[in-house]
Each structure stands twice: as structure tokens, then as C-alpha cells.
Design a protein that fits this description.
single chain; Rossmann fold; GMP Synthetase, Chain A, domain 3; binds guanosine-5'-diphosphate; about 450 residues
């Protein structure tokens, strides 16, 4: 039986958000207000190579003020009964409340391992609970479920705690994502950049349309197409609205549908309007794709409207580097849906990225390489703690994921992680795909 991890805490501290962050998907719909009823959701996930199950206890009914106490109790009781490890979430942006302390009381008496997670630590200064130790769980792990901060550390602590309880990482190769042959290729971008035009161009007469199950959702259409004996599922989406505008109702759900389109894709083609140039909205969408760990190519469309010549392209590339500096590994392609210029190169590029995402590096080889790299440039630490890298191995594909074993791993500086990633890319490439390093 895989270990069960339960997320517990009073309403609105960010349990669902954290749940989604840990499993790496957007399953639970995040409620904007406390008191929204949700079902309890179980989800299997990969905890640093260990197969585990996560349960979001946010599904229990809150709502009526007089029931809060008993609700927290029943929630905690279920967690206590079933869980092997409890993640107790508090909101670092607010003072601790009676409910926090009550939940803490119950959890303390349970004698199950508990990790205290202070969520919403979006910035260093957000965390300032003077009375946090009164909860009885010591120093909290600072996380921001939204901004993806401290998540690796939380996972590491969870792993360490479960290992202490006798759970072991599953060594079998099958824990790697199963390989599949159809490439799910999603076309994303703000409205009017030419997504539909491009998809239509790619579905031109020389292509065999295998199946068409359009209308899955109102604004994302799946069409299967075969090109050069390779099958693609083209996912056409409506533009994702700007982050700041995400509100209730239709707009909010059209955004979620955008997410589900990202979720079921292997590679996203982010379409950019070559005439208008890159803007903030493009950067927002790119960051969503990055968060989802999907493959990515940047497709600059409407290039027929620009002057021909390399200088124009170089200028555009420079502006891409400036406005999307977090994507140095994403390939760029200049196309025109109108004339069809370069459009089919999108398939070739998708093949290439797909291959890179499925790549498995020999563990001994990368181990030797990283030993050399870290000897040349020792990890820098913080607070006089000097981390030491002991071991690296690939634990997954699609996206390529590496587990790095290190002493004092929590003290490895962000810039050093970046350095390791760059070095791995220098040798192995991984064009068009994020790679994950789990410390
Ligand atoms: P739950 O009731 O505990 O499941 O909480 P939710 O996951 O529904 O989140 C409640 C609210 O807190 C939502 O508006 C989230 O967007 C917000 N939230 C969750 N995590 C963070 C975070 O890391 N930082 C900030 N600033 N807000 C967050
Ligand atoms: P979507 O909202 O992203 O699906 O964009 P559409 O495919 O509906 O295209 C928006 C507008 O841009 C339409 O008027 C298209 O004719 C135009 N358009 C799309 N691709 C190109 C292109 O490559 N060149 C030019 N000149 N216009 C284009």
C-alpha cells in the first residue's frame, strides 16, 4: 500500500491549492470563498520517486459558524485514522486563529507524524507569527502554493518522514511515465494571434484526419492528424484571459478550460503575434505552461506582414529574450498561417521536443558528469551550512526529472540549482522542455 498523506487545516488556508501543486495538476477547483463544499479528493502522485496518495480534506462541509469546531474535528479524525503523514497547513498572512489551535490540539494528541506548512509565504516578509511554536510543531516549512515556493522542501521533508516510517522509494522502472506515440500538441495564445488559422492550415488537404472529436469543451477542440506516419492530436484553444482579470463565472471557467487543455498536452505551441510583438499577456501564458512542466515552442505568426530578412528576425528574437527571459531553452519558429510559410515545421519541431522529453540518460554517466561539475564549482550554501551533492539519477521522463541527493539540501542556493540545470542542458540539450531537479 502506498503511504497516504493528508492535508489538514482550517478553510481558506490554501489546502486545495497546495494539493494541486503537490500532484502537479489542477484537479481540485479552487474555491474563492471559504465554505464551498467539495468532495474529498484522493490522488496518486509521485513523491520524489515514491508512489504516494494525497487526500485533500477540504471537501468536508464547513459553512455554518457553529459547526466549525466539529467539522475540524471530524476532518482531523479522518486524517488521523487513515493517514501515514499529515500536512498541517496554516495561513501565514493572517494571525493564528482558535481553529488553528484546535486543529493543532487534535493532531498533537494523534501521535502521527505532522509537517507544519506555513502557506502564502509569497515573500520572505510574509511570515511573522510570533506564537507559532505554541502550535507544538516547531519551525514551519515556509511555502507558497501559488508561487511554487518551498514545495521541494516540503516534499523532501515528507519523504524523509515517510522513510523513517519504513516506506521505500519504488525502484521499478515502470514508475517512469509511460511512453505514448500520439503527440498532444496544444495551440495557445491570446485572442487574434492566429491560432485557429494556423490549426486550419495544418489540417490542410494533404493531411489525413484520423478522428475529430470536437466540442469536448466549448472552446478547446481536439483533432487528430497524421503527418509522415506520426500522429498528432491538435488542441485548439480560445485565448486565456489575463491573470488579473480572473474572476467568477464564465471567464474564470474559460481560464480553467485553458488549463485543462494545457494539462492534456505534451507540448504547447505558444502563438505570438509577429506584427504586434510580445507582451505581458504572452509572458503570463508562458508562465502557466512552465508551471505545468510542458514542452514549449514559441511560434511567431503573421510573419508575412513583416519585412523579409534576418535583421527583422534577430530583432524579434532579442525582444523575446528580453520579455521571456525565463525560457532560454524554448525554440522559436517564424511562420505565416496565411501563406503557410514554415507552418509544417511545427510538426518537425514537435517531434524533436517530444524525443527530448522522453530521453533517458544513463545514471552512471550523469553521475560522473555531475561529480566533475560539482568538484569544479562547489555548491554555495547559506547560514554557514555547506551542502554537498552526493548522487543524481533520472527518475522520470516527460518531463525529464532528476533526483539529486545532497547533504544540507535545503541550503543549496537558488543560483546553484540554476547552474546545475544549465550544465545539464549544456551536455544533454533537452531542447524545448523544462527539466526538473528535485533536491
Ligand atoms: P482551502 O479552503 O484551504 O482549500 O483553500 P484554497 O486552496 O481554496 O485557497 C484559498 C485562497 O487562498 C484562494 O483564494 C487561493 O488563491 C489563496 N491561496 C492559496 N495559496 C496561496 C499562496 O501561496 N499565496 C497566496 N497569496 N494566496 C494563496
Ligand atoms: P485566434 O483568435 O488566435 O484563433 O486567431 P484567428 O485564427 O481567428 O486569426 C485572427 C486574425 O488574424 C484573422 O483576421 C486572421 O485572418 C488573421 N491572421 C491569422 N494568421 C495570419 C497570418 O499568418 N498572417 C496574416 N496577415 N493574418 C493572419
Amino acid at each position: 500500500m502506498p503511504p497516504l498523506l493528508a492535508i489538514v487545516g482550517r478553510p481558506n488556508v490554501g489546502k486545495s491549492t497546495l494539493f494541486n501543486r503537490l500532484i502537479g495538476k489542477r484537479l481540485a477547483i479552487i474555491a474563492k470563498e471559504a465554505g464551498t463544499t467539495r468532495d474529498r479528493i484522493y490522488q496518486d502522485f509521485d513523491l520524489n520517486g515514491l508512489e504516494a496518495t494525497l487526500v485533500d480534506t477540504g471537501g468536508l462541509e464547513y459553512g455554518k459558524q457553529e459547526n466549525i469546531e466539529s467539522d475540524i474535528q471530524s476532518q482531523a479524525k479522518i486524517a488521523i485514522k487513515e493517514a501515514d503523514l499529515i500536512i498541517f497547513v496554516i495561513d501565514s498572512m493572517q494571525e493564528l486563529t482558535v481553529d488553528d489551535f484546535q486543529a493543532a490540539d487534535i493532531l498533537r494528541r494523534a501521535k502521527k507524524p505532522v509537517l507544519l506548512a506555513a502557506n502564502k509565504c509569497d515573500r520572505e516578509v510574509d511570515y511573522e507569527h510570533f506564537n507559532i511554536y505554541e502550535l507544538g510543531f516547531g519551525e514551519p516549512i515556509k511555502v507558497s502554493a501559488i508561487h511554487k515556493l518551498g514545495i521541494d522542501e516540503l516534499k523532501n521533508e515528507a519523504m524523509a518522514s515517510l522513510e523513517k516510517a519504513g516506506f521505500k522509494e519504488s525502484e521499478k522502472k515502470s514508475s517512469l511515465t509511460e511512453k505514448h506515440n500520439t503527440i498532444n500538441l496544444c495551440f495557445l495564445g491570446r485572442p487574434n494571434v492566429g491560432k485557429s488559422s494556423l490549426v486550419n492550415k495544418l489540417l490542410g488537404e494533404d493531411k489525413v484526419i484520423v478522428s475529430d472529436k470536437g466540442g469536448t469543451t466549448r472552446d478547446a477542440t481536439d483533432t487528430k492528424v497524421e503527418v509522415d506516419e506520426k500522429t498528432y492530436n491538435l488542441i485548439d484553444t480560445a485565448g486565456i484571459r489575463r491573470r488579473g482579470k480572473i474572476g467568477k463565472g464564465v471567464e474564470y471557467f474559460s481560464v480553467l478550460r485553458g488549463f485543462s487543455a494545457i494539462e492534456r498536452s505534451d507540448i504547447v505551441a505558444l502563438i505570438i503575434d509577429g506584427e504586434e510583438g510580445v507582451n505581458k499577456q504572452d509572458a503570463h501564458i508562458a508562465s502557466y505552461i512552465l508551471e505545468a512542466d510542458k514542452g514549449l515552442m514559441l511560434v511567431v505568426n503573421k510573419w508575412d506582414l513583416k519585412e523579409k530578412g534576418d535583421e527583422e528576425q534577430r530583432k524579434f528574437l532579442r525582444s523575446l529574450q528580453q520579455k521571456l527571459p525565463f525560457l532560454p531553452w524554448a525554440p522559436v519558429i517564424f511562420v505565416s498561417a496565411k501563406t503557410g510559410r514554415n507552418a509544417t515545421q511545427i510538426f518537425k519541431l514537435a517531434q524533436e521536443i517530444f524525443k527530448e522529453r522522453q530521453r533517458q540518460i544513463d545514471n552512471e554517466e550523469i553521475q560522473t558528469y555531475i561529480e566533475k561539475i560539482t568538484l569544479k564549482h562547489l555548491p554555495t550554501g547559506t547560514n554557514n551550512k555547506r551542502p554537498k551533492i552526493m548522487d543524481i539519477k533520472q527518475t522520470n521522463i516527460n518531463p525529464p526529472t532528476f533526483k539529486v541527493k545532497a547533504s544540507n539540501a535545503g541550503y543549496i542556493h537558488f543560483s546553484y540549482k540554476r547552474y546545475l540545470e544549465n550544465k545539464i542542458r549544456e551536455k544533454y540539450g533537452f531542447l524545448g522542455t523544462p527539466i526538473k531537479l528535485i533536491f
